[in-house]
Amino acid sequence: APDIPVIDQAYSKLSNSITVEWRAVPGATNYMLTAEDGDSFIETIVKNSPGTVTGLKPATLYRITVRSLNSGGKSQPSPFRKVKTVLAAPILSVHSPSCDSIAVSWKAVHTAAGFSVSLMRSDGLGRMLKQNTTNTSLIFTNLDPGTLYTIKAYAWNANGMPGDDFTYNQRTSPNAPVDVKVAFNSGALRAVVSWMPTEGALTYSVTVSSGLLKLRCNTSSASCVVPSLQCSSQYYVSVTAYNDGGSSEPTDAVSLKTVPCAPVNISIEEDEPGHLLVSWSSVSLGHYYVVFVKSDDGLEVHCNTSYTQCHFQSDCGFTYFISVFAYNKAGQSPLGDVFNYTTAPCCPSDFRAAFLSSDTVRLSWAAVRGADLYETRAAGGGGEVQCRDTAPACTLSALRCSTAYSITVRSFSEARGSNTSCAPRHLATAPCSPEIKNISKEGISVISVQWQPNNEEATYIVTARGEAGLWHCTSTRNSCTLMDLPCGSAFSISAIARSPAGQSLPSYSIPLETAPCCPNDLTLAQVTQSVTNISWSVGKGAQTYVTALESPKGEAKCHTLQTYCLLGCITCGTNYTVSLRAISETGLTSRCTYQGYSSSACCPSGVKLYRLSNNDIRVFWRASDETKNYKADLHGSKGNFSCTPSSGLSHCDITKIPCGDVYTVVIVPVTDKGPKLTFCPKKIYS
Fibronectin type-III domain: from which residue to which, for each copy (predicted)? Predict the structure, then answer.
């Protein structure tokens, strides 16, 4: 084993170690350092001198020995040295209570007689401050704000031996920011707070408070955005600077008034047609109000007022979009609810009425703004007729004739209902149809028509309509007379009533037949001495005819469908009255009178012929009328001969007739006019 080493010196510079110095021992490869305090020991192997034993207790007295070591073993311990470890360093607690001070405190150190604390700017500028104290705390003042300082502290014992030192870097808290400005964004309801940066500040905190509400914004820059502010609020804004040393004092509060809230309890009333009243509740921090009213045609008006209501002109049938804003120095309130108000639709105009019949009228008008539906009411005659339609037209039926109606057309909208201010219009219906009560004949071609008057101030027109044409008569009373109606015609008689309101429907038609026409031409021809042929032209409207020849001596009558008739039992040489009755299918009769008729004179009787000579003949006859003249005609194959006696004679002579012939002899009365009679009896003379 190597020799025992000799300790030259042993000392403690740190509270947890002791350093030992010795002379080297030949042959020793290592050394063992041992520190004993009576309760424990600590061994440390080192290569050479000096060597340090660590893991010791501060301010503790140790016995220090050294042994030399090699492969052969270890030496005996060296003579010991007593060494006490130095005091432990105080553990500092440091903070900056203000921007120009640093407070340092620590716990008491065992066996320490005092403490030494020094402070210096970490950047080396300025002088170092040092204080010795037996207390466990102290404060350095008059420091630079926001500056990093290095603080070193140690304790010493009763011998003045310093212990371990403790170093701590502490920054003073910053100064309060200056030149704080608040910019309010009314549209976004946020504030931008800015300030001048302060020395040593790492972060800033902006506090926006209103009553119990506090909003904060933290930033490392010199401005901060505070969102979500409330309208109609007054805030107080302060800024505090922060660093690792603490915080500055808050800046003096800057007052911030936000924009007023959007007005509420907005009501819109149409206090009278054409006037809108917009009212609302007062808004906190609102200095004045602006109401914007925009119509659905794009036109916009506004009202600026410090009161809580505004009046506007309005038009019917429009929808107005209404928004109310409050204003103050901060700006305009946020957009609140946009209200729409639809005014009552306009009253219909350009009113037109067209009667489709006496009890039906079609009403039409120009479509109006805002109308979804139209209601038409017609009141009159103790009743009411109404219709509803989406079209600007209405057909009212079942109206009472000759009645004055008050017609009101109202427009409706789903949003506002009806316009009750529409003025009524007056319309009178056409007169009622008259009812014909009686038709009487006043003459051959004169008809009187009577009806029931059932209208006021109406003119009645009676029309006779037939193939022959139209005949009219007019009256304001209850009857009129149709004149000059043609005979033999069928008519349909109807009546209408007219008034300024229009024309009634025609009455029910009543058929009328005029008596048949008398034939224009009537001819009598005597066929035989006792038979006469009567013929006539067609009488219009006649179906049968009754002809009669009347005289004191008797009457001859014939009823026929034809336009001629043979009448027998005629007395020759008699004056007759000629009459004819034309009779229609329905039995209407026209009595026709004509010029009198005289039957031909009677043929002479007792005709005898006497030969006077070889070539002469005398003809005798017995005259039926002494006043008549006669003529004798002699017809033969060799010639025709005649003779006429002197007035009053009943014979005449025919001379120079050829002999040896057969002759026909006829004695006929001589008339001033008319054809020669052919029905007198003939005599054959040979």
Answer: 1-88, 89-175, 176-261, 262-346, 430-517
Q: Residue 69: which CATH number? A: 2.60.40.10
Residue 281 in this model has a pLDDT that exceeds 70: yes
- Determine, yes or no, domain membership for 56: yes
pLDDT average, residue stretch 196-208: 92
Q: Which residues, 6+ apart, have CB-to-CB distance to 308 below 8 Å?
A: 263, 279, 280, 281, 282, 289
Strands 532-536 and 393-396: unpaired
Give the domain-ending residue among 218, 236, 257: 257
Q: Which residues contact 660 (CB under 8 A, 6 or more apart)?
A: none
Same domain, 574 and 617: no
Over range 97-117, report the average pLDDT.
Answer: 92
- Residue with the two structure tokens 């003949």: 617
Is residue 2, in this structure, part of any structural domain at all? no
What average pLDDT does this structure show over 619-644? Answer: 85
How many domains does the chain fold into? 8
Q: Report how far residue 37's alpha carbon sits from residue 53's, in angstroms, rounded to the nearest whole number.
A: 13
Task: Check whether residue 368 and residue 413 sit in a common domain.
Answer: yes
Give the chain's count of helices (H) and strands (E): 0, 62
| Bridge partner residues of 325 (DSSP) | 290
What's the pLDDT band for 92 if we cut at 50, 70, 90? very high
Contacts of 659 (CB under 8 A, 6+ apart): 614, 615
> Is 356 within a domain?
yes
Quick one: which of 4, 11, 2 has its CA closest to 81?
11
256-274 confidence digits (pLDDT tens): 999 999 999 999 998 788 8
pLDDT in tens, 434-463: 999 999 988 878 999 999 888 888 999 999
Q: What is the pTM of this model?
A: 0.55
Same domain, 64 and 112: no
- Going from the C-alpha of 651 to that of each of 152, 334, 575, the distances in angstroms are 209, 151, 27
pLDDT at 103 over 90: yes
User: Alpha helices of 385-438 — where are they, by DSSP H?
Assistant: none
Q: What percent of the chain has pLDDT over 70?
A: 99
Name the least confident of 51-55, 511-515, 629-633: 629-633
**7, 33 contact by CB (below 8 A):** no
CA 470: distance to chain centroid?
Answer: 54
Confidence at 600, pLDDT banded by 50, 70, 90 = confident
| Judgement on whether residues 334 and 397 belong to the same structural domain of the protein | no
Least confident of 127-131, 234-238, 512-516, 682-686: 682-686
Question: Do 138 and 98 fall into the same domain?
Answer: yes
Query: One-letter amino acid identity for 478?
Result: N
Mean pLDDT confidence for 600-605 = 84
Q: Are residues 446 and 502 in the same domain?
A: yes
Provide the 10 A C-beta neighbour count for residue 210. 15
DSSP line for 504-566? PPPPPPEEEEPPPPPPS-EEEEE-SSS-EEEEEPPPTT-SEEEEEEEETTEEEEEEESSSEEE
The length of the chain in residues reads: 686
**Dmax over Cα atoms in the chain, in whole Å?**
250
Q: Which of 428, 460, 476 is the last residue of a domain?
A: 428
Residues 506 and 541 grouped into a single domain: no
Assign 165 to helix, strand or coil.
strand
Same domain, 356 and 423: yes
Domain that holds residue 562: 522-599
Query: Whole-angstrom distance between the N-terminal and C-terminal Cα of the chain?
Result: 237
- Sheet of strand 223-226: strand arrangement: 178-185, 190-196, 223-226
Residue 628 has pLDDT above 90, yes or no: no
Query: If phi over 0 gives left and psi between -120 and 50 gives alpha, with beta otherwise, what is residue 212?
Result: alpha
Q: Is residue 1 part of a domain?
A: no
